[in-house]
Amino acid sequence: MEVIVIGGGLAGLSAAAALGGEGYQVRLLESRPFLGGRATSYQAGPETIDNCQHVLMRCCVNLLDFYGRLGVTRDIVFYREFFFLEPGGRTSVMHRSLGSFLGLRFLSLSEKLGIARGLLAIRREYSTRQDLDRITMRQWLEEKHQPARAIDRFWRQVLVSAVNEDLERMAARHGFQVFQVAFLSNPDFYHMGVPSVPLARLYSTDAWRELGNVQILPRTSVQRIVVENGGVRALATSGGELTADFYISAVPFERVATISPELAGEIDIAAFEHSPITGVHLWFDRPITDLPHATLLDRTIQWMFNKSQGRYIELVVSASRSLVETRREEVIELALRELAEFFPAVKQAKLEKAHVVKEVRATFSAKPGLEEHRPVSRTSLRNLFLAGDWTRSGWPATMEGAVRSGYLAAEAVTAEAGNPRPFLRAV
Ligand SMILES: Cc1cc2nc3c(=O)[nH]c(=O)nc-3n(C[C@H](O)[C@H](O)[C@H](O)COP(=O)(O)OP(=O)(O)OC[C@H]3O[C@@H](n4cnc5c(N)ncnc54)[C@H](O)[C@@H]3O)c2cc1C
Predict the structure, then answer these.
(1) The CATH number of 2-36+203-270+368-416 is which of 3.40.250.10, 3.40.50.720, 3.50.50.60, 3.40.630.30?
(2) What percent of the chain lies above the pLDDT cut of 70?
(3) Which residue owns the Cα nearest ligand 1 atom 34?
(4) Centre of ligand 1 from the C-alpha of residue 110, in Å
(5) Which of 20, 180, 341, 378 has its CB 3.0 to 4.6 Å from that of 214, i.e. a possible disulfide?
(6) What atom in ligand 1 is closest to the CA of residue 361?
């Protein structure tokens, strides 16, 4: 049986890996010269940089399963400690113990008690409450009388990065899921994984050779699916017409209507909006910190990652609407100004170079009411299946969500082929 997967992001790659491993003959078409889609790296002068720091948690069991298929799990370094820094540099360390939570210095005792009440309410309401996709996380936190500083310094700090959306715009179900799955279920699930190699190296062609039945065709762009008698007959691509038994479209939502306008009646693309992420790469002439990473409180910059010996630093701002129109030089100025408040060594250090990556279409906005518009893998065309972080994966737009969608589409292909196989791992 032959399958063509359109798109070499994590959704397409994971679908290809699952089906290739089951003996399907898979061709993966990717318009760009490299794999990874939004989770990738590229050359910026002499440096290979990630388009943005990507992190995962141990609860991303499908992403880890996919990394396992490619044999790259050892390239992910896991951390059990989170460093919260206040302006001025005071540091609090959080791991999964009551003692560490009570010891957090950036929250007062009454704020901690408020958060504990909130976490208990999440545990209680996670599977019972019906309106979590209709209200925002902010509304829910206010309903629970969370103290203002607990909202800003704890709930916002954790959730805006995890879901890439502001608390005022995020459906409460996503906020619930982050805490329920990562912090309140399995004791190891909150560990944060950081790739120790540039992202694109995780999907290098060597790994694919091991998988056997997957042929990767970079620089091959699909222009149009060709529909006949309720199914896809072929794909019109930059490399000519290609045919297979099954097709998986794993392109972002803004692309799907162009290549398959036939789906316009069944997918409400207008319901989707983007949420941006900005990454700032800074290279200093000397180390400015020895922390591996830290979350920075009360400022625009939310996260710092120490990419190399405290000299190459990457800063991340999720849901970064305030920076979209800001000039590159001003973003760098802001980053240096704020960073110096947390790491005084910045004041003496010389900035050798800087790179700003604004991903305006980073993810979909996980707003209330969107869930019912996220399509499932099956379409009205019998041999066309959908994947992509925006489809109904059960997760917000993340690498785990993308891989889940890829596995779900692969499962749907095997079911349609008459030999259903399970790929999705449950958390
Ligand atoms: C700046 C940034 C930071 C992020 N940080 C994190 C993080 O820390 N943790 C996390 O879990 N997630 C993070 N994400 C989200 C994560 O990267 C995405 O959710 C995930 O990579 C999406 O994968 P995908 O396969 O669904 O889509 P994509 O990665 O967009 O892949 C789609 C692919 O299809 C290709 N394509 C499009 N049209 C065609 C066509 N016509 N023909 C052939 N190919 C085509 C594209 O070139 C692309 O490679 C981040 C995203 C961004 C942008």
Answers:
(1) 3.50.50.60
(2) 100
(3) 7
(4) 41
(5) 20
(6) 53
